[in-house]
Automatic annotation (TrEMBL):
<keyword id="KW-0238">DNA-binding</keyword>
<keyword id="KW-0804">Transcription</keyword>
<dbReference type="InterPro" id="IPR036388">
    <property type="entry name" value="WH-like_DNA-bd_sf"/>
</dbReference>
<feature type="domain" description="HTH luxR-type">
    <location>
        <begin position="309"/>
        <end position="374"/>
    </location>
</feature>
<dbReference type="InterPro" id="IPR016032">
    <property type="entry name" value="Sig_transdc_resp-reg_C-effctor"/>
</dbReference>
<dbReference type="GO" id="GO:0003677">
    <property type="term" value="F:DNA binding"/>
</dbReference>
<keyword id="KW-0805">Transcription regulation</keyword>
<dbReference type="Pfam" id="PF00196">
    <property type="entry name" value="GerE"/>
</dbReference>
<dbReference type="InterPro" id="IPR000792">
    <property type="entry name" value="Tscrpt_reg_LuxR_C"/>
</dbReference>
<protein>
    <submittedName>
        <fullName>DNA-binding CsgD family transcriptional regulator</fullName>
    </submittedName>
</protein>
Amino acid sequence: MMNAAGTSIPLLETPAALAALCALHTGEAGIADTVLKAALAAGQGGNTARPRLFLLQAWSAMQQDNADEARLAINEAVKANHWPLTPRDDFLLAALDVGLARRGSEVHELVLAWERAREAMMHVSVDLFSLLPWGELMITAARLRETRRVGHYLDGVWHFLGRLGDAPLWSVPLHWAGVQAALLGESPAGLAPHAAALVRASEHSHLASVLAAAGKAWVSVLAGRFEASDVETAARGLASTGLPWEGARLAGHAAAHAEERRDMVRLLACARDVHPQGASASAPPPERAGAPQAEMSLQAPAGDFGTQGGHDLSGLSPREREVARLVLEGKTYREIGEAIYISPRTAEHHVARMRRRLGAENRSELLVRLRLALGEGHPPP
């Protein structure tokens, strides 16, 4: 009705923002996109509402691992504002910067974004329509080992949800963030209450059932006791609820710990399928056109293999490929140096550069990506 009338009235949230938030909280990012685009086209809420609508559009794009679209929407939000963002929108923008940096695996950018977010959170209080940013910051705090510095804020978030009776619509994404934070912090005690909450909510929430299964899969992978079929189901479930980056990350991590080669190949294929860029229907770029699918680099959740700075499809230079083979043989930096006549420090630099280029967040993911880069992760003919 507001779109059709083209009028502006003062509201805490526009109908489009409320609808988009409900959609994002229930795993329906596509619906959020549709509602937000229609509202922006119609000018719902007038100029004052545009920045927040664009920021929510950016959040939906980030959640679906469309970083470029997210940044475009952020730019539109900043341009649409003729005065400084409100504290709650500035907080949302800061959390977006953190989320994009975390998914881009740029540690330096993540630290800078985190410092800005810590300042932004001092200017807001917890409210029902600003819960998603707290989930992103909860995960990042665990990754950066900064949880204690923001613990009192997070306590406020859980207290707020407790007063609402832990309503599934609003609490399920936060409990999923709690699961991820506990996994990063290697805290079984911290994981248990969030996992239990997701299981309870599964009776009434499809998203909760998907996230509960994904949490169970993560625990089994980290314990080294998992079935590839269960992990694949969980990863595809995450992708189906608008969380493809999380799904690809789960499948990729499991592939790194698979004992059977066929399971590794299956899980890597799953990661490639659920990741948006990897599943794109658009034509491959010129340097990869015509290449068999098995030879295409995995568009990994933390980055892609690409061809940047390299001499072949793997993106690795000849020297880096030498180092990669020795890494896969389990050689130390000293042993690598002795084998190819370089210093251990130079060997370490080569490994760090390959890790950044291939988008690996840890050593396990690096090993998987190196196997692919050297052609050892392809299925047999």
